[in-house]
């Protein structure tokens, strides 16, 4: 078929994003219209639409119309799974994508770039955001780093086809790019559990670091940090942000039962606290992250019987032989069974932190902030001197 005019499709997408409030800057609108997104999407990908609609496969050869519609919609397009070890249309863990335009432009507008700013991008992926930055501030001002050499090679080809040539480095983004420092902005396209201090060192005073921040428990947040003259970076969390984790910082994967072994000497007790609250009260997640580091949560409902029964899990990020806890929710029960194993009693830790958060008046995400220094990271509530957990 003859493809519809990509520019017209991009204009329609820009109107959609503007209506959503994700695209307000005319210069970024121009970048969306003039940087052809279709040159950064492979023929086969997995589309994840914005909102509750389920994902679906796109194959340009088999159904070109659906492929074009997906490319110029507000959908993320998964382009790699399991670091290239499995089929992109399979069930593996997504490891690279062309991110949803709404999220991309909300992120880029928060970056607040100015003419002639020098930007370090961590995570090239398909190269689309590097092209958008190159359009906005010029190729010579953009350095983008990709750890996967196969992705980097394809991104280089995509960028060339689109007419852009930023500096593309194959390496670990956790190391930054000292040869190009100092940068005015650091733009991170993957989530991090810990913010590498070298990013602060490589950013000039007054510069900004914008990164998805996922220290463990919970969905994740966008951290917007200003670098100040004493070697620290300070900022807040303007929005939630669920992104793929940097490869070197991923937690252990697998089903919850992978943590449970027959030899486990489990401690059993009961609780009157509804475990579903600890899953659904997401405003508490950041507070719990600080008090209970190195873990993540899951909630599984009994879908076979549709009884409303559910099991809440807290699992050690380090591996399947670490501590774990489970709480079985049964509708109508006044108490729920708690099982815990390992040197840490994870339900005790998480429930105590949650109740402490309630006692503070349920502070929401926008009241928390983060300071990064040579000594590490510190999360604070309302004021940088009021550290959480002290």
UniProtKB/TrEMBL annotation:
<keyword id="KW-0489">Methyltransferase</keyword>
<keyword id="KW-0949">S-adenosyl-L-methionine</keyword>
<keyword id="KW-0808">Transferase</keyword>
<comment type="similarity">
    <text>Belongs to the methyltransferase superfamily. L-isoaspartyl/D-aspartyl protein methyltransferase family.</text>
</comment>
<protein>
    <recommendedName>
        <fullName>Protein-L-isoaspartate O-methyltransferase</fullName>
        <ecNumber>2.1.1.77</ecNumber>
    </recommendedName>
</protein>
<dbReference type="GO" id="GO:0032259">
    <property type="term" value="P:methylation"/>
</dbReference>
<dbReference type="Pfam" id="PF01135">
    <property type="entry name" value="PCMT"/>
</dbReference>
<keyword id="KW-0963">Cytoplasm</keyword>
<dbReference type="InterPro" id="IPR029063">
    <property type="entry name" value="SAM-dependent_MTases_sf"/>
</dbReference>
<dbReference type="GO" id="GO:0008168">
    <property type="term" value="F:methyltransferase activity"/>
</dbReference>
<dbReference type="InterPro" id="IPR000682">
    <property type="entry name" value="PCMT"/>
</dbReference>
């Amino acid at each position: 078929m003859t493809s519809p005019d990509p520019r017209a499709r991009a204009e329609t997408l820009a109107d959609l994003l503007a209506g959503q409030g994700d695209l307000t800057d005319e210069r970024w609108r121009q970048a969306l219209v003039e940087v052809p997104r279709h040159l950064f999407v492979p023929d086969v990908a997995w589309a994840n639409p914005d909102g509750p609609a389920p994902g679906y496969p796109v194959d340009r050869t088999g159904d070109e119309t659906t492929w074009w519609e997906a490319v110029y919609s507000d959908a993320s397009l998964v382009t790699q799974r399991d670091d290239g070890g499995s089929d992109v249309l399979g069930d593996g863990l997504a490891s690279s994508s062309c991110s949803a335009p709404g999220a991309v432009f909300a992120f880029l507008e928060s970056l607040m770039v100015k003419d002639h700013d020098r930007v370090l991008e961590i995570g090239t992926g398909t190269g689309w955001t590097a092209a958008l930055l190159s359009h906005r501030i010029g190729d010579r001002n953009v350095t983008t780093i990709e750890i996967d050499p196969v992705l980097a090679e394809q991104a280089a080809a995509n960028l060339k086809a689109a007419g852009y040539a930023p500096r593309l480095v194959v390496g670990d983004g956790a190391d930054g790019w000292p040869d190009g420092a100092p940068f005015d902005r650091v733009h991170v396209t993957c989530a991090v559990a810990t913010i590498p201090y070298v990013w602060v060192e490589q950013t000039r005073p007054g510069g900004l670091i914008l990164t998805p921040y996922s220290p463990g428990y919970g969905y994740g947040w966008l951290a917007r940090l200003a670098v100040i003259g004493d070697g620290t970076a300070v900022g807040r969390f303007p929005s939630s942000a669920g992104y793929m984790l940097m490869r070197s910082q991923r937690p252990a994967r697998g089903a919850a039962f992978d943590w449970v072994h027959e030899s486990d000497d489990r401690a059993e007790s009961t609780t009157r606290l509804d475990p579903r609250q600890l899953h659904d009260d997401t405003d508490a997640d950041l507070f719990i992250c600080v008090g209970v580091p190195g873990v993540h949560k899951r909630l599984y409902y009994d879908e076979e019987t549709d009884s409303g029964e559910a099991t809440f899990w807290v699992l050690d990020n380090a591996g399947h032989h670490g501590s774990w806890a489970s709480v079985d929710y049964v509708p109508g029960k006044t108490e729920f069974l708690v099982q815990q194993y390992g040197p840490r009693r994870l339900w005790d830790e998480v429930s105590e932190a949650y109740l402490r958060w309630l006692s503070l008046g349920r502070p929401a995400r926008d009241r928390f902030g983060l300071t990064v220094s040579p000594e590490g990271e510190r999360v604070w509530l309302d004021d940088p001197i009021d550290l959480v957990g002290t």
